[in-house]
User: Which sequence fits this backbone?
């Protein structure tokens, strides 16, 4: 049946159109009255890792809101920041296209994008267009080795991960008067596991670090039984286990170490997500205690962390500032700080200001944000976290530590009455 | 026919002059339109004209991209030369897959499975090869310059992508009216009948897959030097293959303008939907809308939009056009 357009339907439609236009148009008119600086957040808010993307976008947005609430960019007459939103869908071509769009819409600086590949696509585009880009999270070393002038990174690089691990191990060994550790490295057979495991061993060898690797054991991701691997480990008699694991095999490993009564002084991961996931601690209870992991982390004793986390939890019930949303927040602070000092929105002025950044912060573990000539944050750092009393505590560096690390483990896994 | 050629000439002229009137962003959207139209057209040669359905074309894209990029990064070979070597490499792999498939008479879904399997083998192999960047992927150095295929603005990319697209149109048009093209269509329509008429089925299918793989790989070089990052998941995975075939399916499989029309429709639609709905609280709505549009297009234009346009234009132009 064909509907005819009569006077009544015409009025109805035009009213609807009018209302929509008014709704869409009004905020623009209001906003136009105050000076405003546009920056853009490009995160993977849809696609395979959308939960991380959304969390990072929230971190970016909350930082913008907080800066505006504190009076905006004061050196530019209290100009308010406005965050343009982009969605990379976790794809490189989309990331590039979205970056191009927000630049067209007037973004003077970009922040994002969690994935290193997306970061590379955006960084190259920013170099082509001459627009500053601050990477909040993205670890691959290569991005900042391309001689980009407009790209900066707040997050620690992959190399920094390994360096920090050795730094913390060195500290533990010195404090405990240990001259040599005999260890076994394990990792899952997926690419993340392989790269992490192999990089750790490579760095140990290169630096001639006094950790002797008795064995390197690899098992497939999603393995259902680790008994053979753990028997091998037991036979090698290591003092410390250095496992790169995911939550599933982390649990299997602890259970098997318990069953086979493997004697260890410590379980210290060079950096893997298996050990700090809530489900691991929930399921393993006391058995999870004393495991250490080397990861970028928020600074639990920091004043800024406490404030931001409280506000974040209030705004998004059930959510807390974690590594990703924390760095997302910090990324925007870095941009605002540069704008404040640049007193201008010209790309070259912002870049000059970014280069001179010295932003004190205690939101994330690591010192004040400052960039080297490549654009990497020289003070970005990882933390050594340890599960103590079934909750995660930062134990190193001391400045951010909630408590002292416990090493060697005071009680073997099977000896904990579980 | 004259009317159509003059119309096409006019459209080309408009496209050539377009960069004077639009921003870098719009140019970027057009780059993607042309790129996907080109990739779709390359796939169209095999599946649209000759018949065997391939769901593994990302493999050739990846091979082309990796070969030309590695040649450029390690040996300093300009991508303008590397792209042809990449094309040959992909063509060889395509011929090998074709040999396995066609020699043993794999048809329908079985050939589809073969292409998927080889696509996955390619992706996993690339993932584990250290020289290709391992898990981290390959980060392409940005060295602006014509010889390096790297440019600051979108303008050169626009013209190159337009050139690629026009090139593919010409290739397919020449093919359409040539003996090869007629044989391809005969194979697609009825293989047994074609064979009984004396067409060497194996030979012409091999030609189709070799040519299709070669052209897809050339597009891979463009992708590498436009995006500057290669990772097996983002150039060789299944969803890339699907992205490639989506345009010709919507536009019209086995037609000259199908891939271009499909790309002209889908690429801006996804861009507009994303830019409009990418705001807090509406995450993902654009994908739902895009999906709904796809379903609508398939429902209302099952033969592709180009066939529909042909039907509409027929009485106006008064001529039949071969497809």
Assistant:
């Amino acid at each position: 049946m064909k509907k005819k357009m009569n006077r009544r339907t015409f009025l109805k439609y035009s009213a609807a159109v009018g209302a929509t236009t008014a709704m869409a148009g009004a905020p623009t008119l209001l906003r136009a009255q105050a000076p405003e600086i546009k920056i853009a957040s490009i995160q993977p808010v849809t696609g395979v890792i959308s939960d991380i993307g959304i969390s990072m976008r929230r971190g970016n947005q909350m930082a913008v809101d907080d800066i505006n609430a504190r009076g905006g960019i004061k050196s530019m007459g209290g100009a308010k920041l406005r965050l343009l939103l982009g969605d990379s869908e976790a794809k490189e071509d989309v990331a590039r296209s979205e970056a191009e769009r927000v630049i067209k819409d007037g973004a003077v600086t970009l922040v994002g994008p969690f994935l290193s590949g997306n970061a590379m696509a955006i960084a190259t585009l920013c170099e082509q267009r001459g627009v500053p880009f601050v990477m909040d999270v993205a670890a691959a070393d290569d991005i900042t080795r391309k001689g980009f002038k407009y790209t900066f990174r707040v997050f620690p690089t992959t190399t920094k991960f390994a360096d920090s691990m050795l730094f913390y191990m060195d500290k533990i060994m010195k404090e405990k008067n240990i001259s040599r550790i005999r260890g076994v490295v394990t990792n899952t057979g997926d690419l993340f596991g392989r790269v992490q495991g192999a990089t750790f061993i490579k760095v140990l060898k290169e630096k001639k670090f006094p950790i002797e690797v008795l064995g390197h054991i690899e098992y497939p991701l999603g393995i259902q039984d680790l008994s053979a691997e753990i028997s091998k480990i037991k036979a090698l008699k290591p003092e410390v286990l250095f496992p790169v694991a995911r939550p599933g095999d982390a649990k299997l490993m602890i259970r098997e170490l318990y069953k086979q009564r493997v004697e260890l002084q410590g379980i210290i991961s060079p950096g893997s997500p298996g050990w700090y996931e809530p489900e691991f601690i929930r399921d393993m209870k006391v058995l999870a205690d004393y495991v250490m992991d080397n990861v970028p982390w928020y600074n639990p004793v920091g004043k800024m962390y406490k404030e931001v986390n409280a506000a974040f939890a209030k705004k998004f019930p059930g959510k807390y500032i974690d590594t990703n949303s924390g760095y997302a927040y910090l990324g925007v602070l870095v941009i605002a700080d540069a704008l404040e000092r640049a007193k201008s929105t010209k790309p070259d002025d912002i870049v000059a200001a970014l280069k001179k950044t010295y932003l004190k912060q205690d939101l994330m573990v690591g010192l004040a944000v400052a960039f080297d000539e490549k654009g990497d944050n020289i003070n970005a750092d990882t933390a050594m976290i340890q599960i103590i009393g079934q909750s995660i505590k930062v134990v190193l560096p001391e400045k951010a530590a909630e408590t002292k690390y416990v090493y060697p483990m005071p009680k073997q896994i099977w000896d904990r009455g579980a | 026919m004259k009317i159509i050629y003059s119309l096409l000439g006019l459209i080309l002229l408009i496209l050539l002059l377009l960069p004077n009137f639009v921003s870098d962003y719009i140019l970027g959207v057009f780059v993607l339109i042309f790129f996907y139209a080109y990739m779709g057209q390359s796939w169209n040669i095999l599946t649209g004209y000759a018949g065997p359905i391939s769901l593994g074309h990302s493999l050739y894209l990846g091979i082309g991209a990796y070969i030309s990029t590695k040649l450029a990064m390690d040996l300093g070979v300009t991508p303008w030369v590397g792209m042809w070597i990449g094309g040959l490499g992909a063509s060889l792999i395509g011929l090998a897959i074709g040999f396995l498939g066609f020699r043993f008479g794999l048809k329908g879904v079985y050939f589809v499975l073969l292409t998927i399997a080889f696509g996955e083998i390619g992706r996993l192999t690339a993932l584990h090869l250290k020289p290709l960047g391992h898990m981290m992927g390959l980060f392409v150095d940005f060295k602006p310059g014509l010889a390096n295929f790297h440019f600051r603005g979108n303008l050169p990319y626009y013209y190159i992508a337009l050139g690629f697209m026009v090139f593919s149109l010409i290739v397919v048009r020449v093919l359409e009216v040539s003996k090869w093209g007629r044989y391809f269509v005969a194979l697609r329509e009825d293989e047994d009948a074609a064979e009984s008429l004396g067409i060497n089925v194996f030979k012409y299918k091999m030609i189709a897959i070799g040519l299709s793989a070669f052209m897809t790989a050339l597009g891979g070089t463009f992708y590498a030097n436009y995006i500057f990052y290669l990772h097996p998941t983002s150039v060789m995975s299944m969803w890339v293959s699907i992205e490639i075939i989506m345009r010709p399916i919507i536009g019209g499989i086995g037609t000259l303008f199908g891939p271009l029309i499909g790309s002209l429709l889908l690429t801006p639609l996804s861009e507009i939907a994303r830019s409009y709905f990418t705001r807090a609280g509406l995450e993902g709505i654009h994908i739902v809308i895009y999906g709904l549009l796809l379903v609508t297009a398939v429902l209302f234009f099952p033969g592709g939009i180009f066939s529909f346009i042909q039907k509409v234009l027929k009485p106006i132009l008064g001529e039949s056009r071969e497809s």
In short: Chain B touches chain A at residues 23-25, 28-29, 32, 127-128, 134-137, 139-142, 144, 151-154, 223, 226-229, 231, 234, 271, 274-275, 278-280, 283-284, 286-287 (CB under 8 Å). Chain B is about 75% helix and 0% strand. Chain B has one domain: 22-317. Strands of chain B lie at 138-139, 229-230.
